[in-house]
Amino acid sequence: MGNDSSATQQIIALFTHLNTNSARQEAYHRILDQLKPHEWRDVRSRINQRSFQNDILGQSPPEVAVQIAQYLDLAEIHVLQRVSRKWHLLLSSELIRGAVYQHYSGCGAHVTETQFTRYTKQRLRLERGLPICKLRDLNLSSPYGSSLDCQDYSNGRHAWLEGNTHIIVHDLCKHTAQRFCTENRDSFRDLRLSESMVVAISVRGYCHTWNLETEEHASFRIPALHFRAFVVRGLRVALGFANPLAIGDESIIYWGMGSGVARSIQVEPNLALVGLHSTTNSLTTLHLQRENHIKCGRDPTSAGHRDSLCVVKYTVDDRGHITRMPSEPLQLPFPLGIDWSVEILHDISNDAGGRLAAFSCQPPPSAVPSTSPRYILVATHDPQIDKVYMHGLRPEDTPYLPLCITAVDRNLLYYVKNDRGKPAIWISNPASRNPHRPAKAMDPELPREATSRVYSYASRFTLRGDRDFVMMVDETDVKVWRFGDMQF
């Protein structure tokens, strides 16, 4: 017995002193070849007891764990917190909590655990289309007579025109209403609403604004009644105009209630979207760029133009000096290597808030007949981080025309889809593994058509919303779904 123990120690010592991988491999291979069947079973049992997994997340420094967590969505973080006590403590730490919250909301990185939990639950409800409840007995003073183009929603308030001369702003949280009109009872034709202000365009070519808190009124003259963009954020207004007599001559009228001064900003042609920041004098524009290229060889389809999108940012200082930043190209969310033909859909989007832009995208014509239908591209601007997000609606997503779309949260879009002839609310979330999913708990309660190709009521309903409420307005009803965790 003593001799066996001595021999075992000698073998182990000799194996330990082998310095190369090839020598060690040859040694244990030759030992394995000497094993008997019952000894093989013992080796296999011993191997099954050994774990070859490594807890990369648990052993990573907090700074590395933060980088990993930013590539996970909230649902994945919630699931991973249940793996082990160590993972739960790590993924619930203040450092990771703040980084994830800032990534999704754009707010500061300092957030309490209660705030983070509340936001996470609300965001997951939005991603899955699961509202807390559907509001009933709203007791609205009848917005149905108002044109859908003359209604808007922002931060829990719904605004519409009454009799073309009065503006009604209804607070869904407080169940209160405000009424606004000019001294001369001017008629209005367009309406916008922000978290701080309601704005209307009169038929006489004036832009009238009211502060929702103080009800202070101000107005300024606009150069024309036909505009490509009309956006309100905070106490600031931006309207985009194109000169019909000069192609490419486009400008933005920028006005703030604090200064009361309207400034004209010359911008790039083919303006598609204007984004405003609520607290700083800055704006972001999205443009369609066309670059012509020459026919190559005998290919009749190689001549034409390459279409792309670019983002340009502007700042306005206290003295009115305007600074233009260099333009930044925006990558289309479609296959590369194809010269997509892109057109701005100016007239078919019924997004009265002007907070998004829609494009029609088609592959170039080819000598071989193609059956590829067009794609719909939707761009949204996030004012918290001043970034433009892109959503691609594939042909199989079949959105209605005119488009019925609203951006409810960062990189999260709700749209009405033609679901075999019946309107259904769907969700676009490009960051998700399932970028398009139905909001099954949100039934628009609109009738089904006999055909899935055309819906005769498509221009008679509109969708509005944000993180707290999503609203659908049609000719006879207002449906409101609540997502925010608040008390009424």
TrEMBL record:
Any idea what this protein is called?
F-box domain protein
Provide the F-box domain boundaries. 54-104
Q: Name one Pfam family in it.
A: F-box-like
PROSITE patterns recorded for this chain? FBOX (PS50181)
Note the CDD domains from the entry.
F-box_SF
Tell me the superkingdom of the source. Eukaryota
Kindly give the InterPro entries that the UniProt entry links to this protein: F-box-like_dom_sf, F-box_dom
Q: Which residues form a coiled coil?
A: none
Give the organism, scientific name. Answer: Aspergillus sclerotiicarbonarius (strain CBS 121057 / IBT 28362)
